[in-house]
């Protein structure tokens, strides 16, 4: 646990608990979210976080909020902490392109790179089927999209580019094949072996991927396939460039690799907004550590920024609404190490002195905090711990590494607290009862 973590005094605890009891909105039915939608107002970008990548309840609440944003406020797309090629295939399915998948289950079941459960789950199947139905009656330029923001898909993006260029541009295909040959010796270890090799061999594959990106950008006006496929070709080339940088940087640890990744996410969001027009509105799904403004945590002191911070800085606080999520206890899907089998794990009660513990102490019901309602008080002055669970999780050691020192009202514009949560329902293992679970809060 960081020394930056403030342990609340008895008086601070009493003050914080009292404020929560007075100012929090109970979440009891679907209308309980109305204060959140009032806070969102005319915002252009709404980011919906999560305290883990394996919690059923976070996905459900984000799905319900996203549906309302699409139906009531005209949001144009959802962009998630996922790989571009996989999410783009889902995008083509939900937009009803001919021959682009036979059901959300089959499309999402193909999300087979670890951690598979993040997107290959029943909760996202339900959302994808809803989006596909919603899009059916809309013209193509009005259909709601679904895209990936992340940088991990080096090999998948390379294969997607070669397939596209094989049909449209045989000359540039040669550059893609050269890049593939450069990376090929390292392809089965997710970039780690490439990163290690660059320590000892000064030449890397950077020149190949940069040359490919430049050539594709020159040729874009001549590609006459549908506009999204053209955009996707350029995006896959950009993923390759940033993935190469990311894998070289990650070997050294620290802030640089993290910043490459979040800068890529922010650039991808910018590109998607431009693609959809100057009035486009975006919904972002990502972990709290990406969504919540890094400047309100100890991340900033370590030289790290994130997409929440970058987007606030670029578009302005009034156009961006950051929504965090958290819970006191429950269950989660995670792995014991990178690449390990997924399993359901217990999430113990939140550590005493954390935000989650304070919210539980106030009362044990689900609740919504709107930060503008809190004014200046203990909430704005202290870095209390805020739980963050990744795809690798060890509950028994949680208090030593799973709490991010956070000034909650500066990190988010709103916060949804769920007292007890349940584990996600992955597609690649049988869910309980072998049936789709309830997929939206309040049965809607």
From TrEMBL:
InterPro entries attached to this UniProt entry: Emycin_Estase (IPR007815), Hydrolase/PRTase-associated (IPR052036), UCP036794_erythomycin (IPR014622)
GO biological process: response to antibiotic
Identification of the protein by name: Erythromycin esterase homolog
Originating species: Chitinophaga eiseniae
Taxonomic placement: Bacteria, Pseudomonadati, Bacteroidota, Chitinophagia, Chitinophagales
């Amino acid at each position: 646990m960081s020394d930056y973590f403030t342990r609340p005094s008895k008086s601070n605890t009493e003050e914080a608990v009292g404020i929560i009891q007075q100012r929090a909105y109970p979440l009891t039915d679907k209308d309980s979210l109305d204060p959140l939608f009032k806070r969102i107002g005319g915002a252009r970008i709404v980011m919906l976080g999560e305290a883990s990548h394996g919690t059923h309840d976070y996905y459900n609440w984000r799905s319900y909020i996203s549906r309302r944003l699409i139906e009531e406020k005209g949001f144009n797309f959802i962009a998630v902490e996922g790989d571009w090629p996989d999410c783009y295939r889902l995008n083509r399915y939900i937009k009803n392109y001919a021959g682009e998948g036979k059901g959300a289950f089959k499309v999402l079941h193909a999300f087979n790179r670890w951690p598979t459960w993040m997107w290959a789950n029943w909760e996202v199947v339900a959302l994808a089927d809803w989006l596909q139905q919603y899009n059916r009656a809309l013209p193509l330029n009005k259909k709601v999209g679904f895209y990936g923001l992340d940088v991990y898909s080096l090999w998948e993006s390379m294969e997607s580019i070669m397939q596209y260029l094989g049909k449209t541009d045989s000359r540039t295909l040669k550059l893609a094949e050269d890049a593939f040959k450069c990376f090929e010796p390292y392809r089965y270890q997710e970039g780690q072996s490439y990163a290690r090799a660059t320590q000892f061999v000064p030449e890397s594959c950077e020149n190949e991927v940069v040359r490919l990106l430049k050539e594709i950008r020159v040729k874009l006006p001549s590609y006459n396939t549908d506009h999204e496929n053209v955009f996707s070709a350029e995006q896959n080339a950009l993923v390759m460039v940033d993935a190469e940088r990311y894998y070289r940087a990650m070997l050294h640890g620290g802030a640089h690799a993290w910043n490459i990744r979040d800068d890529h996410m922010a650039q991808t969001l910018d590109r998607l907004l431009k693609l959809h027009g100057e009035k486009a509105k975006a919904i972002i799904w990502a972990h709290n550590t990406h969504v919540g403004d890094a400047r309100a945590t100890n991340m900033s002191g370590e030289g790290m920024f994130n997409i929440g911070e970058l987007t606030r800085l670029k578009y302005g606080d009034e156009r961006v609404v950051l929504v965090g999520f958290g819970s006191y206890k429950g269950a989660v899907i995670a792995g014991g190490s990178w690449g390990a089998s997924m399993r359901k794990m217990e999430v113990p009660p939140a550590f005493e002195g954390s935000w989650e513990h304070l919210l539980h102490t106030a009362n044990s019901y689900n609740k919504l905090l709107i930060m503008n309602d809190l004014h200046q008080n203990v909430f704005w002055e202290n870095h209390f711990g805020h739980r963050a669970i990744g795809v690798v999780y060890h509950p028994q050691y949680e208090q030593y590494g799973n709490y991010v020192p956070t000034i909650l009202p500066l990190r988010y514009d709103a916060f949804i607290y769920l007292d007890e949560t349940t584990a996600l329902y992955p597609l690649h293992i049988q869910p309980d009862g072998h049936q789709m679970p309830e997929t939206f809060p309040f049965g809607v």
